[in-house]
Every structure is written in C-alpha cells, then in structure tokens.
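Write out this protein's structure.
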Amino acid sequence: MKEMRRGHFDLSKVGDSAWRVSDVRTPEDDPARVVAFIECHDRDVEVLWIRGSVAGPQTFRDLDQALDAVEGPATLPEVVHIE
C-alpha cells in the first residue's frame, strides 16, 4: 500500500512501515498540510504529531486506533489561515 485516504486525510508511505499524514483541506504548498507521521512497530504504532494539540509522540495498539486519533476533532483542530 503506497497511499490511502481516510476521511480528509491522505496517508503517503514514506518507509517500510511509516506514513506521512496530510490534511487535504489544506493547500498543498502549506507546511500545515502535514499533520503527523505514523510508524508501525512489532507491538504498537507510534504517531509523531506535527500539528495539533498533542505534544510529542503517542503510542497506539494498532493502525486503526492511530488513525482514529488522527481523525479526532479534539486532537486536530481545523487549520485557520490568517491573510
């Protein structure tokens, strides 16, 4: 699997077991488009947040649980662009 979409997030494979999560609502040239990086390990899945209200990495039991957190409105507030 090279790419997949979940809700308004694109997941692009960046390694054997890692994905970049991008918010498709944000323009492609905006650095805020990158939301997180997800890496799958033998026993868990780690999410390194780039944008949102969670500081530092979080660990989840599986990819579905990690993706649920990515979609969660409390974790990732909508980006507001100030012009």
